[in-house]
Fold this protein.
Amino acid sequence: KYRDTFEKYLTLKIAQAAGQELSTYGNVEVLYTRETDKAMTLKERAAYAKAVDGDCLISFHLNASEEHNFFGSEVFTSAFGSYYAWGKGVGDQVLKQLEADGFVSKGVKTRLGRKGSDYYGVIRESKEQGIPAIIIEHGYMDQDGDWSRMDTDEKLIQLGKSDAAGIAALLRDPARMQQLSENCKKRDYTNGAEVEKIYALME
């Protein structure tokens, strides 16, 4: 809890704004893992994405640090194959939009656990279901500069619209998506389900 509120309340507003904006494109179906304060495990979220035939899962987050002096936006994705290709492509576009909103981009990142699989559960569980996923860390709630860009409902809605613009930029460019996937295969990443449909599953 920071600033007398909880991350989950703010990220729900961001997710709903992103979903509403994406829905205006006409070729995107948006489903939510939650629309209220409902608890779901990471495995349940990925299983739901699979059950509704989702083609990707977007997890919305806000950050904080023990030192309270970190700042900036970053996107995490799988380290493997076309899951990485999709996450890198979408993540770069999302971060470009967030930079325009005044955030500092810390880049698209991967992280592996001790067993060599993806560290973050929602990414790992989604990959197990054959679904690419990203985590968008918009900024730090405990850093004044970042907080000033998310401290009202209007600013949270703008973050959602920026996310949607970034997601749509790549989804509307299948040639670029194919190129990213082929490049990753050449780099000898593992695995490789192609992303063909245009849907988004919002967390």
Q: What stands out?
A: The two ends are 19 Å apart (CA to CA). Residues 184-203 have pLDDT under 50 and may be disordered. The chain is about 45% helix and 15% strand.
